[in-house]
């Protein structure tokens, strides 16, 4: 157990060192943070937005927000938790905008896009279809807990709520997912 604590503390301290270096003017330190967290941030955005291109755009915007606001990181939580909160909030915000954007697309453009969009062969099409029916906030909690494998405390911190609220959100999102999933043809 002490090895786990030491590796966690070392991981946390490493981020703080990189942040301090960046704030002192070392742009390369931010590149290290970017490289270290890109895949996880992209994964969160992809889980919420369900679209590779939109997730890639959101990821760039998330890192731009982090770059501009890193001096506001207060160190009350782990850096990764703060970063995941930014990722979740920005992805949900973009997801809400996409909902409106998709309403404005011509029907033939939408059907063309669906035909040309490559499917993720790793995922079950029924899971993807059920996730598409969920609200971005539900996709966020499911993505953080199941795909990113965050603890309930980390999910709560990332969603800026208490652990009990995170449990409730996870339970409700899971139930909504289950209902959508069960309605889909096998």
Description:
- By secondary structure, the chain is mainly α.
- The chain has a single domain (2-183), classed as Rna Polymerase Sigma Factor, Chain: A, CATH 1.10.1740.10.
- The protein has nine helices and no strands.
- The chain has helices at 2-23, 27-49, 52-69, 79-104, 107-116, 125-133, 136-147, 152-159, 163-183.
- The longest helix is centred in the middle third of the chain and has 26 residues, at 79-104.
- It is globular.
- The termini are far apart.
- The relative contact order is 0.10.
- Mean pLDDT is 82; it is low at 4-12 and 100-121.
% residues in beta strands: under 5%
Shape by Cα distribution: globular
CATH topology descriptor: Rna Polymerase Sigma Factor, Chain: A
- Helix content percent band: over 70%
Mean pLDDT, all residues:
82
Order of helices and strands: HHHHHHHHH
* Unreliable runs: 4-12, 100-121
- Radius of gyration (Å): 18 Å
Number of domains: 1
| Span of the ends, CA to CA | 44 Å
Main β-sheet description: none
Quick one: CATH class?
Mainly Alpha
Q: Helix tally? A: 9
Secondary-structure class: mainly alpha
CATH-defined architecture: Orthogonal Bundle
Number of strands: 0
CATH homologous superfamily - what is it?
RNA polymerase sigma factor, region 2, helix turn helix motif
């Amino acid at each position: 157990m002490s090895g786990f604590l030491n590796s966690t503390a070392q991981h946390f301290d490493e981020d703080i060192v990189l942040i301090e270096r960046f704030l002192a003017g070392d742009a390369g330190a931010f590149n290290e943070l970017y490289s270290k967290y890109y895949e996880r941030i992209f994964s969160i955005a992809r889980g919420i937005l369900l679209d590779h291109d939109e997730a890639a755009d959101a990821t760039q915007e998330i890192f731009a927000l982090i770059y501009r606001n890193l001096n506001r990181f207060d160190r009350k939580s782990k850096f990764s938790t703060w970063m995941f909160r930014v990722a979740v909030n920005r992805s949900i915000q973009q997801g809400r905008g996409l909902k409106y954007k998709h309403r404005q697309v011509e029907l033939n453009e939408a059907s063309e896009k669906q035909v040309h969009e490559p499917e993720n062969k790793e995922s079950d099409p029924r899971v993807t279809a059920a996730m598409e029916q969920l609200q971005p906030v539900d996709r966020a909690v499911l993505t953080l807990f199941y795909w990113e494998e965050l603890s309930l405390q980390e999910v709560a911190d990332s969603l800026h709520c208490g652990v009990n609220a995170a449990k409730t959100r996870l339970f409700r999102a899971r139930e909504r997912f289950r209902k959508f999933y069960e309605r889909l043809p096998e």
